[in-house]
Amino acid sequence: MSKHKIHVILRLKGWVGEGSRKNLIANTRMSFKAISLKPTKKFLRLFITQSLRITMLVLILTFFSSCDKTKVYESYTDFDEGFWHQDSVVSFSFTIEDASQPYHLKAQFRNAQTYPYHNMYYRYTLKDENDSVLSEEQIQIFLFDPKTGEPSGSGLGDLFDNSQVVLENYNFPNAGNYSVDMKQFMRLDTLPSLLSVGWRVERVE
């Protein structure tokens, strides 16, 4: 039988004096202290750093979402395989409630750093609710600087977001529903390292 157990039994039977009781409490406290798990300084620093990063990211996202008063519509289509297939047409539908003011229409792309080219050709087709074509064009966007190879747009890690104004100060003919179709024109069956394609409509202030 262990020393602590003997002391406990003796104390219960009234055989342990006050001095022994104090020793028992001290020994018990020492035992609890010995088995307690304390995080290391390195772990605490890492935990605090990661917590601060997450907090700052949440604050930044909250700030920009609250300040983004010009946004009328914004949506993305993700490519789960990380490829934009040549026969894959990405479509977006949105509603314009006020046709009396101009809008900026933007194409948006999210690509990985492993994207093998510095540019990308794509084609968009803007249509009204009767499927009448309002605007159609093939456009080039630079995802990397042709000279330095540095990624364009904003990035987090090895992912980068690029936005390009397709139609500037555009006036819709009427209030109502509209749609846009987007397709890659790189003459490749699969365009690698393209993760998302998006479309944004914003009011001109």
* Proportion of residues in β-strands: 35-45%
| Uncertain residue segments | 2-18, 24-37
Computed over alpha carbons, the radius of gyration is 32 Å
Strand order of the largest sheet: 1-11-4-8-7
End-to-end span in angstroms?
83 Å
Description:
This protein has 205 residues and is α+β, with helices and mostly antiparallel strands. The protein folds into 3 domains: 1-36, no CATH class; 43-67; 72-203, Jelly Rolls, CATH 2.60.120. The chain is 27% helix and 41% strand. It has helices at residues 3-12, 18-35, 41-67, and strands at 71-78, 83-85, 90-96, 103-112, 119-128, 133-142, 154-156, 159-170, 176-184, 190-192, 194-203. The strands form 3 sheets. Strands 1-11-4-8-7 form a 5-stranded antiparallel sheet, with no helix packed on it. Strands 3-9-5-6 form a 4-stranded antiparallel sheet, with no helix packed on it. It has a two-stranded antiparallel sheet with strand order 2-10. Strand 5 (119-128) and strand 6 form a beta hairpin. Helix 1 packs antiparallel against helix 2 (18-35). The model is unreliable at 2-18 and 24-37 (pLDDT under 50).
Concise synopsis of the structure shown:
This protein is of the alpha+beta class. The protein has three helices and eleven strands, in the order H-H-H-E-E-E-E-E-E-E-E-E-E-E.
